[in-house]
Specification:
InterPro entries: SET2_Histone-Lys_MeTrsfase (IPR050777), SET_dom (IPR001214), SET_dom_sf (IPR046341). GO terms for molecular function: methyltransferase activity. The chain is of the alpha+beta class. Helices cover 47% and strands 18% of the residues. It contains three helices and ten strands; from the N terminus they run ββββββββββααα. It has a four-stranded mixed beta sheet with strand order 1-2-10-7, with no helix packed on it. A three-stranded antiparallel beta sheet has the order 3-9-8, with no helix packed on it. A three-stranded antiparallel beta sheet has the order 4-6-5, with no helix packed on it. A hairpin with a 4-residue loop joins strand 8 and strand 9.
Length: 245
């Protein structure tokens, strides 16, 4: 299977700097790009001093120095759960990046750099791939939940202790004897109602007498008014008698 043409991918901005992104759908198993550069020989002392992040080890002797700018594959970032892999052929001294999943347009192409590279370069600063980011977020969420749980537990404990202290205080207050009121206060309270009752009784008696007096006066008025009526009738009778005579 031939390599894909360079119109299937592009270099673009990624979370970790620059990355390689798909422009067209890439099917699983497709050979995306070749990782190339000068070959470094471990037997050559001149090559021992070369050190950079783009060295791809083929075997114990041969290593590809992929730091050259023409090597577009060097922009492919590491991922712990990648969508591509490096297909290494030590005999031919070549490396092909091959898709292990269907890659959609706009999706970043990535592969696993290996344990040695991860320990040397990524672990000290923390891997920023999508999988590791999710793990970190999950751990952070769990830590927050645990912190909230401990805080709630401490609050409940403090509340229980406060309630216990309040119960003890209430029990201690219940055992204490209540204070008796002083004698002068008792006398003042007992005399005051009697005086009020006496006044009200006097008032009620006076009012009843007044009512009775008014009633008697009214009756007397009625009797006095009735007497003149009788004299008038007697006069009329006397006059009639004199006329008859």
């Amino acid at each position: 299977m031939p390599l894909l043409s360079n119109d299937h991918y592009r270099v673009g901005r990624s979370k970790t700097g620059l990355g390689l992104f798909a422009l067209k759908p890439i099917k699983k198993g497709a050979k995306i790009i070749r990782y190339f550069g000068p070959l470094l020989d471990a037997h050559n002392k001149k090559h021992d001093g070369i050190e950079n992040k783009y060295l791809f080890e083929l075997n114990k002797r041969w290593t590809i120095d992929g730091s050259v700018r023409k090597n577009v594959a060097r922009y492919i970032n590491h991922a712990c759960k990648p969508n591509a892999e490096s297909d290494v052929n030590p005999r031919k001294k070549r490396v092909i990046i091959r898709a292990i999943k269907n890659i959609e347009p706009g999706e970043e192409i990535n592969y696993d750099y290996g344990t040695d590279y991860f320990k040397a370069y990524l672990k000290p600063i923390g891997c920023k791939c999508v999988s590791c980011e999710k793990k970190r977020k999950k751990k952070a969420a769990e830590a927050r939940a645990e912190k909230a749980k401990l805080k709630l537990k401490a609050e409940r404990k403090a509340q229980a202790e406060a309630e216990k202290a309040a119960r003890k205080a209430a029990k201690a207050a219940g055992k204490a004897k209540p204070e008796k009121p002083s004698k002068p206060e008792k006398v003042a309270k007992s005399k005051a109602p009697k005086a009020v009752k006496a006044k009200t009784t006097a008032k009620s008696k006076g009012s009843s007498k007044a009512v009775k007096t008014k009633v008697v006066t009214a009756k007397a008025g009625k009797t006095k008014a009735a007497q003149p009526a009788k004299t008038t009738s007697s006069r009329k009778t006397a006059a009639s008698k004199s006329k008859a005579a």
